[in-house]
Amino acid sequence: QTVALTAPPPAGWLGGWCGVVVSDDVEEADCSLPPFPQPQVEERFSRIPEPVQKRIIFWSFPRNEREICMYSSLSCQGPEADRDGGVPFQRGLKLLETSGSRPAAVAAAAGLKTPNFGFRSVAPAGRSEASVDMSPLTARHVSHGWFHLSGNVTEAANQGEPERVYRVSISFDRCKITSVTCSCGNRDIFYCAHVVALSLYRIRWASQVELRLPISETLSQMNRDQLQKFVQYLISEHHTEVLPTAQRLADDILQLGSEINRLNGAPDPTAGAGIEDDNCWHLDEEQVLQQVKQLLSNGGYYGASKQLQCMFNKVREMLRMRDSNGARMLTLMTEQFMDDPRLALWRHQATGMTDKCRQLWDELGALWVCVVLNPHAKPEERAGWLELLKKWDQMEVCPLEEGNYISEPQSSAEPRNPPGGVHKRDHGEKLLTSTHRSASLAGRTAPHRLARVDALRSHGYPRRLSDWPLPWCTHSASSDGIQLEAYKQQKKEMLQKGTTLISNPEGWVSHPLDPIGCPGCAFSVVAFIHVLNFFFLLFFICLLPDASCELKKPVYIHTPVPSATPNSGESYFTMALEVALLGLGQQRAMPEGYYAQDKVVRSEETLISVLADIPLDERLLQVMRRQTQLLLEGGPYSGLGEVVHRESVPMHTFARFLFTSLLPHDPELAYKVALRAMRLPVVESQIHHHDPLTSNPLDPVPANRFPRWFVLGHLETRQCELASTMLTAAKGDPKWLHTVLNSIQQNIHIPALLYKLAQDACKAATPPSGPPDMTLLNVALELGLQVMRITLVTLSWGRREMVRWLVNCATDVGMGAIINMMQGWYNLFTPIEATSVVAVSATSHATALRLGLDYTQREELGACARTMALQCAVKDPQLCALPALTLCEKNHGAFEAAYQIVLDSAATGMGHSHLFTIARYMEHRGLPLRAYKLASLALAHLNISYNQDAHPAVNDVLWACSLSHSLGKNELAAIVPLVIKSVRCAPVLSDILRRWTLPSPGLSGIPGRRNSGKMMGTDKAPLCQMLEASIGAYINTTHSRLTHISPRHYGEFIEFLGKARETFLMAPDGHLQFGQFIENLKQTYKGKKKLMLLVRERFG
C-alpha cells in the first residue's frame, strides 16, 4: 500500500513536506526530488529511520541519463547526434557498454555471457565504503558513501598503450551532481568519459551498489583504539599526500584555544550539502572562461564560431531543462565576450564587427532575453541580472545593435545608440523593469509578447503557450483597424503632399527581439501541433538554425479556434498566415549599419521561404486576398500603401510571393500588389508620387542615391526579379505587358538590370518550339533601347555585347525594327558601334536569310545602313571613316562621298595613323594614287625625332616611300620634302635612302606607268637632297648623344658611327667628309679620352 503524505508527518517519518512518497515496503517506495538539503531535513525531524534515509540517498542521485549527456556533450540531441564517438558522453557510454560493464547477475538474466567489467577499485580500509562483488572477471566493487560515489575506471590496453586505471569521485545532492574529480587530469567544460561511465553505471544498475552511512556515522561506532588504528592506517596508505595535513590538524587539536577546538563537530564530505549551499550541477567556471576566450581569439575561423554556437545551444538546452546553470554559463560567456580585445580595436579604428562576430552577439542578446523572461525567476535573480545588464551597457566597448561604431557627432545628452540600432540588453533591462508576472497584453508591443512566448518555450513550458495566440491576434487586428481608420481621415492630405512621415516605430521583421524569427528549431515540436498551434510553429522559424536540428517538412492542419464563430473557417492556421502577412507588409524604416540592413533582408527572405512551402487551400487563399487588400489600403502603416516614406524597406520580395500565390486565383489583385511594390523611392531625386501619365520613363538615373543603404544593390536585384516574374506571367496579354513595361521604365534605372529584364523577356518570347510572342518581343526590344539610351553617355564595358544582342532582338522583331533603329542611331549608339556592329550585322547575309528578304528589301536595308555609316563618318571620321568606306564599296556614289569625308577630315586634324590605315586600304582596293595622296597627307601630320628609330609609324613611312618609288620619279620627288620635314631620325632616313637607290618594282594597271629598271644616283635630284638630310641627321644625332653619354654606352656609340660612315660613303666625297667629321669630334670632345681612344682604334 502506497500512501502520499501531504501534511507534516509524525516524528520519526519523512513525508510529504519533503516531497517524498513512502510505502509500507521501503524497498519498493518511490521518491521525488527532495527540495531541501539533508541537514534541514534532520533539523525538521528528530529521528529518521535508516531505511528511509537510504531511500532518500538512493533517490538523490540523478536518474535521467539525458542530464548526464547535457554535461558531457555539446549536442542538444543526445548521444544519437554525436556519431563520431569523440565526445565524452559517447566515450563513456562505449567504455560502459563495449567493455562489458553489466553485473554478472544482470548479464545472466539477459541470457548473455558474463562480460569483463571495466570498473575496478581497491578493497576499502575499514567500513567507510561499501563493496559490490561481481563475477571473478569484473571489478570488485564501486563505493557509495552516502552523498558520495567513487570508483576506479579501467581503460583497456589499446594500440600498444598499457591498461590505465583512473580514480573517479562524484558528489551529488538532490538529483544533481555537485562536484566531480578524476585522476585523468583532463580539464574541460564537460565531464570526462570516466565520470560519465561511473554515473551511467550508478543510474542503470543502482540496485547493485550497496549504500553506506556517512563516514561520521561509522567513526562514531569506533572506540579509541579503533579510531587510532584507522587514522594510522589512513596516513600510512597515503602518507605522501596527507601526512603534512594530518600533522597540521593534530597540532591544532592539541592547542586548546585553536579555532578547530572552538567549533563543534567536524566536516563530513559524504554527508551531503549544507543548508546554505547552492543546489546546482557542477560547472567548471574557469574552463568556461578559458574556452570562450580561446575561441574568441580564433574568431576568424569557421570552427571557432561553430563551437561558440554549440555553447549557446548548450545554454538553451539548460534553460529548457530549467537548469540554473543556463544563466550562470551565459553570464560567464558574456563576461568573456565583453573582455574580447577586438571590441576596443574596432572602436578605436571606427570599423564594424565581422559578420560572424555580430551573429554571435545577436545570439548572446537573444539568450539574455529568454533568461530575463523566465516566468519562475526569483526577484533576487532578476535584480542581479538587471545590475549585470546595466554594468555591461555602460562599458565603452559594448557593441551597438547595428554593429557599427561609425556614427554622426551627437551631443552628450543624446543616447549612445543611434535610432537604427537598439541593444538587446536595453530590451532586457526594459523587460526586467516591467511587470513580469502580469499576463495582460495591454501596453505591450508585439515583439515583447512574442519574446515572452519564446521564453516560455525555451524554459520548457510548451503547454502554457496555448493561452497566448488568440488574445494577441485579436489585439493586433483591433490595432490595425484603428490605424486604418486614422489613415482614411488623413488620406487626402497625404496624397496631396505625396509623402508621409508616419512609419511603424518597430517592425516585426529583424526586430532586435526577433519576434517573427524567434530562435529555435520550430518543427522539432511538431508533435504539439494541437497545443502549439501553427501560429507559433511558423513564427519560431530560426534565422540562424541550430546545426544539430534537422528541419522536416511538417504536415499542416486546420485546428479550429475555440472562440471562433461557427462556419467562419477561422483556425490557428489561418490566423498564423494572417499575422505573418501583416508582419511582412509593415512599413518600417531601414535601420542604420550594414549588418542590421543585411539582417532585414535575410529575415524577410527566410520567413517568405517558409510561407512559400505552405500548400494553399481555399481558406488560406481567402485570408491572403483579404490581407493583401488591407495592405493595399493600409496607408502609412503598410509598406504597400499608396504613399510610403523614402527610407522605408521595399516590399519587392514580399510582393513577388503574393504575386505568384494570387496569380492563378485573382490576377487583377496579383498585378495590383506587384505593380504597387515596384517602387524604390530611395533612389529618386526627390520624394514625389509617380504619375504614369505625366512622368517620363526615360529620365536619367538620379545622382543622389542614399549612401547609408548598404544593401541597395541586393534590393534592386529583388526589384528586377519581381519585374521579370510579372513580364513572364503577362506573356500573351498585351494589356498587362504594357502596364508592366511602364512600371519598369518608371522604377528601374540600373542598366544592367534593365538589360537582364530585356534578355528574360526575349527568352520567354521566343520558345524553342512554337511561334514567338511579338508583343513580348517588342517589350524586350523597348527595354533594350532604353538601356542603350541610358548608357550612351556613360559607356560601360558590356555595351558592345548589348549592341549585338539588341540587333539580334530587332532582327527577331522584323525589318522595320532594324530600319527604325538605324534611322535613330544617334540616340542609341556611338558612331563606331553603329558602323562596326549595327550596320555590319544588319547587312550581313545571315540577317537577310533570317528575315527572308528579297532583292528590293536588301537594297533598302543596305541603303539605310550606308546612310547611317556616312553620318557616323562625318561625326567621328577617325574611327568610322574606314568602316564607312568598307560598307560603301559596292555603291560608287556612297564610296566617293566617304572618300571625300576622309579628305576633308585630313585637313581638319585626322591623325596620321588613321590616314595611313585608310591609305593601305586604298592600295589594297587597287587605288594607288588615292593611297599615295592619303599617305602624303599622313606624312604632313607626322614628326619622328632623332632618337625615335622605334617609332610605331616607321613602318608606315617606309611603306609610303616604297609606294612613291613604285609610282615614279615625280611622285618620289614630291614626297622627299615631306619625308625630310617629318623624319629627323638618321637611321630611318638612311634606310629610306638605300631603298630608293634600288631599282623600282613599278606598278601594273596604271596607264603610262612603266618601270625603267634603272638605279637612281645619290648625286642627282631628288636623292641628293635625301643624302644631305641623312648626313646632317647623323651629325646632329652624334653631337646630341655625346652631350650626356656614359661609359657603358661607348660601344653602342662606336657602332652608331659605323652606320654613319656607311651613309657618308654614299656621297662622291663621302670619305673626306667622314674624315673631317671624325677629326672634328676628336678636337671637340678631347676630354673624353677613353671614348676618343676607341674612335681612333676604329676609324683612325
Describe the structure.
The chain is mainly alpha-helical and 1100 residues long. The chain is 54% helix and 3% strand. The chain contains 45 helices and 6 strands. The strands form 2 sheets. The protein has a 4-stranded antiparallel β-sheet with strand order 3-4-5-6, covered by helices on one side. A two-stranded antiparallel sheet has the order 1-2. Helix 31 packs parallel to helix 34 (855-875), helix 34 (855-875) packs antiparallel against helix 35 (877-887) and helix 35 (877-887) packs parallel to helix 37 (912-924). 39% of the residues are buried. The model is unreliable at 1-34, 76-84, 100-141, 403-425, 434-443, 517-551 and 685-705 (pLDDT under 50).
C-alpha termini separation:
139 Å
Spatial order of strands in the largest sheet? 3-4-5-6
Largest β sheet strand count, sense and barrel closure: 4 strands, antiparallel
* Annotation field: number of helices: 45
Weakly predicted, low-confidence segments: 1-34, 76-84, 100-141, 403-425, 434-443, 517-551, 685-705
- Structural class estimated from helices and strands: mainly alpha
- Over the alpha carbons, how many angstroms does the gyration radius reach? 47 Å
Number of strands: 6
Tell me the β content: under 5%
Overall pLDDT confidence: 75
GO cellular component, one term: Cul2-RING ubiquitin ligase complex
Organism: Erpetoichthys calabaricus (Rope fish)
Protein name: Zinc finger SWIM-type containing 4
Domain SWIM-type: 166-203
